[in-house]
Write a structure and sequence with these properties.
4-stranded antiparallel beta sheet, 5-stranded antiparallel beta sheet, 5 helices, globular
């Protein structure tokens, strides 16, 4: 299923029953930003784990954090600052993952996504792990209602098609 507009921001998720077991709902999951697909290779994703983590971890309910000062920064400065906040070089400073979109399998493939909101808009930034650094790859700014529409449809899919109920 496709959630969103791939030319702006979207998720492409497909279950592959042949890859599943009793405990794992597997398939593929990609993020699109400005028409580019992340990751750029085929990877198996444990959908019940990755989507649960997306909605229940460091960015609860996949809700972007509002920060006017960050939002107003230039792309280069914002990306650098979000990386510093999320992965500080000083080991005495605690990591703040509240701007990072927690997508485990996509991160394992070397891609990271960050979001920050202000007023009616969201900035979505993508980076790639390269030579022990995360380098900027792309950015898009969309209306908060577009972002929430993608999030809400993705959550509905997760709740109705993916989530494993423990009995």
């Amino acid at each position: 299923m496709l959630f969103g507009n791939p030319d702006k921001f979207a998720f492409l998720i497909e279950r592959v029953p042949e890859w599943e077991s009793d405990s794992f709902i597997n398939g593929i999951m990609y993020v699109y930003l400005n028409g580019k697909m992340y990751p750029d290779t085929l990877r198996t994703t444990t959908l019940n784990t990755d989507l649960d983590f997306l909605f229940n971890s460091t960015m609860p309910n996949f809700q972007p954090k509002v920060n006017a000062d960050l939002y107003r920064m230039s792309t280069a400065d914002l990306f650098k600052k979000l990386c510093e906040i999320t992965f500080p070089e000083d080991y005495d400073i605690e990591n703040d993952y509240s701007y990072q979109v927690p997508l485990q399998e996509i991160e394992d493939s070397g891609y990271y996504f960050f979001v920050v909101a202000y007023k009616n808009n969201v900035r979505i930034l993508a980076g790639k792990y390269f030579n022990e650094d995360i380098i900027f790859d792309d950015e898009n700014e969309i209306n908060i209602s577009e972002f929430e529409n993608v999030r809400d449809k993705l959550f509905e899919y997760y709740e109705n098609e993916i989530k494993i109920t423990k009995t």
